[in-house]
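To fix ideas, we quote verbatim a fold written out as tokens:
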Amino acid sequence: MRINYNYIKIIGLLMLVVFLFAFSNQRNNQRPVAEPDINFIGENKLFITETTVSKLLIQNQRSVTGQSKEIIDLNQLETALNSNPMIKKAEVFMSVNAKLSAEIEQKTPIARVTTSAPYYIDDEGSLMPLSSNFSARVPLVTGNIKNDKLNTVFQFAKAVHDDEFLKKHVIEIRQNADATIDFKVRKSDFIVHLGTLEQLEKKINNFKAFYQKAVKDKILERYKVINLKFDKQVICTKK
């Protein structure tokens, strides 16, 4: 019987490749995780620091740094990060060489509610705690405030945030007992009665037209109340 040594060589070579692959894969899985690389997405100031994020990257009750790559649960790490009230979205990646990376998108505050325990409202209507690292320059929310009755405030605060003119000028949003809205603007002491959010865009345009003309005519300081509740007109009460 003639032995085909070529087949034997091929089988041997395949076995060697499989062995080397398994050996290499095992060694790679046992690589210690390097210091996490943390990246913040967007232009927001840092309400949460890299140090705080690093402390959330915990596996088996200790930092992921130095632990074997094979025991790291990326989903668990993402869940821990996303549970932080400062974080809007977090994604965690692991490279082949055991380099752990975390991409963090922070929440965007659009108003600050002034209560005994103040907090922010973010651009999706969620509550967000204050940060000891940075204070956002957003309108203060005062008046009749309850956590479960802030939708009207949120809707108007979002309109302010999305409008460059209002974002520059509005410094306070007041919710009244009947859920109507008043607001104040920078460098002026008058109160603006907005009323309900019906025809909000029209009310905002009316206010812009009034404000720009009043600034041009230098008569803003004459008024104590600007009423936008009525259609097609702005009613002003003098001091």
About this structure: The longest helix spans residues 5-29. The radius of gyration is 29 Å. Confidence is low (pLDDT under 50) at residues 18-29.
